[in-house]
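Entry 14. Ran structure prediction on the chain below.
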Amino acid sequence: EEVREHRARQRSLRMAQALPVIAVVGYTNAGKSTLFNALTASAVLVEDKLFATLDPTTRHLILPSKQEVLLTDTVGFIQKLPTTLVAAFRATLEEVREADILLEVVDINHENAVEQSETVQQVLGELGAGDKPRLTALNKVDLLDDPAEADRTLFPNAVPISALRHEGFNELMDVLGRVVAATMERVRVKIPFERGDLVELFHRRGRVREEAHLASGTYLEGFLPPQLHDIFAPYADIAAREA
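Output, structure tokens:
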């Protein structure tokens, strides 16, 4: 219960930052923590055993589009979960329910890669997270005789990578940026001059398509993460009334 409350507090802090949250999910030993470490330059425990990552870790990540997101590492999924680990497993995966986007890591070199991914999808469905926007990192292509063997057609938004060798990261980050952009909402707002902090926030967290300095404030049109909707909603009403 104490662990659950701690994680709930951590999720509240992340929500307060109003950043899109991307959860890294996948079958155990697919290379999730290795990818997480490589993308965020952190030092999450990497072990070749079940449930090495039972305490989710979250880091900031800047995409090529300059969009800032939060990346969360989670426990590895598995079939026929041992009874003694059910509680810890379920508590950890609360992070998945709270995420905006899922980054699934698949060990494409494993003979049961498709079946393992199906297990992941089954668990996601049970968690009520099966319909979240998702992309797939086909990991360990460096172990294939021919990297072209990685069949992208079997997985959504699939990108072949090697987390260990940092291969395929440019394409992965570009695709991730597009997935994040697709979740954004188009808005028009007029920000009073005394709220220059909100103009800066729009530029930092969103994508500005048009900006104009009017007599009564700064007009902005563009795209924002849904997490910022409540913050900017009052100023969207002003822009609509004066349009």
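The domain at 185-242 is CATH 3.30.70 (Alpha-Beta Plaits). Will compare against last week's run tomorrow.
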